[in-house]
């Protein structure tokens, strides 16, 4: 079959769910549209679940169990998907990120995952476990996914990555002085890459800062764009060209208002002098 995406059920609970759904559908000889009619959704929805671009809801899983007479296997798998502690829309965003030609990031409070050192990322995950926000297994899953995302940036040709960090990202201590010093060094090294631009949005930007929440803008190989924004409780992926264009314009305005890369690196280096 042309352009049929290969599925790795060991990569994540979402992928395992999609692989089982496709395998059983293939065994029945049904198309995605035919399965969609039986479950009560569109064929494109089936495609998105099979390829991990859309996580299965509990209702979807229960319907799949009914259609395939699998008891509660799909429903139990969907519970594992929900327990990965990833916000809605994020798994699909990660899929786009892995093939993007341009990635634009804005972050508040913490360094963006793609720019984190392993020690910094581990400190963030450990903090979430201590607060009871996630389990230790979920923390391990997050770190594994993050390592895979970071490795994907090393593909050739490498995507262009633009990162604007609120000043709070570099001033909030995470993991202690040694971890923070290494993280600041990582930012400076990131800025020196030929395919990256790093800027700091200083506190005194005030009301001129375009965003109050973290956002990510992805440009795909066909030059289409998607936007992903999140709060502490939920994430949202948007493909509506009008919404994406508005966010893209706001991002360019933010880049114009933020400190230049040279000034940003100087700020980070000055802050680094106060760490071991």
Structural class: alpha/beta
- Give the class-level CATH name of the largest domain: Alpha Beta
User: What gross morphology would you assign?
Assistant: elongated
Element order: H for helix, E for strand = HHHHHHEHHEHHEEEEHH
Explain how this protein is built.
- The protein is of the alpha/beta class.
- The protein folds into two domains: 13-82, 434 Repressor (Amino-terminal Domain) (Orthogonal Bundle); 90-115 and 151-272, Endonuclease Chain A (Endonuclease, Chain A), CATH 3.30.870.10.
- The chain contains twelve helices and six strands.
- The chain has a six-stranded mixed β-sheet, with helices on both faces.
- Strand 4 (215-219) and strand 5 form a beta hairpin.
Name some characteristics of this structure.
6 strands, Endonuclease, Chain A, 12 helices, alpha/beta, 276 residues, single chain, 434 Repressor (Amino-terminal Domain)
Structure summarized in a few sentences:
By secondary structure, the chain is an alpha/beta fold. It folds into 2 domains: 13-82, Orthogonal Bundle (434 Repressor (Amino-terminal Domain)); 90-115 and 151-272, Endonuclease Chain A (Endonuclease, Chain A). The protein contains 12 helices and 6 strands.
What is the fold's blueprint, element by element?
Layout: H1 13-28, H2 32-39, H3 43-50, H4 58-68, H5 73-82, H6 90-97, E1 102-107, H7 118-130, H8 136-152, E2 160-166, H9 167-171, H10 177-191, E3 196-201, E4 215-219, E5 225-230, E6 235-238, H11 241-257, H12 261-272
Parallel strand pairs: 1-2, 2-3
Antiparallel strand pairs: 1-4, 4-5, 5-6
Helix pairs in contact: 1-5, 2-3, 4-5, 7-8, 10-12
């Amino acid at each position: 079959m042309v352009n049929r995406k290969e599925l790795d059920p060991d990569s994540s609970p979402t992928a395992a769910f999609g692989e089982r759904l496709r395998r059983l559908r293939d065994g029945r000889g049904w198309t995605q549209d035919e399965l969609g009619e039986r479950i009560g959704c569109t064929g494109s929805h089936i495609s998105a679940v099979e390829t991990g671009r859309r996580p299965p809801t509990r209702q979807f899983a229960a319907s799949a169990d009914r259609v395939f007479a699998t008891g509660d296997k799909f429903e139990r798998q969907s519970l594992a998907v929900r327990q990965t502690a990833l916000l809605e829309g994020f798994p699909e965003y990660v899929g786009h990120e892995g093939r993007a030609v341009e990635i634009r990031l804005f972050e508040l409070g913490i360094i963006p995952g793609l720019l984190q050192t392993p020690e910094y990322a581990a400190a963030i995950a450990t903090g979430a476990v201590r607060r009871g926000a996630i389990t230790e297994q979920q923390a391990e899953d997050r770190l594994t996914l993050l390592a895979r995302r970071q490795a994907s940036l090393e593909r050739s040709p490498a995507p262009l990555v633009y990162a604007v960090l609120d000043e709070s990202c570099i001033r909030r201590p995470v993991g202690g002085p040694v971890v923070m010093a290494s993280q600041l060094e990582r930012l400076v090294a990131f800025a020196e890459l030929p395919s990256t631009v790093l800027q700091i949005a200083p506190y005194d930007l005030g009301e001129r800062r375009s965003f109050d929440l973290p956002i990510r803008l992805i440009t795909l190989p066909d030059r289409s764009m998607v936007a992903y924004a999140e709060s502490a409780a939920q994430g949202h992926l948007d493909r509506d060209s009008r919404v994406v264009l508005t966010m893209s314009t706001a991002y360019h305005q933010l880049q114009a208002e933020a400190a230049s890369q040279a000034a940003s690196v100087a700020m980070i280096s000055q802050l680094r002098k106060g760490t071991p």
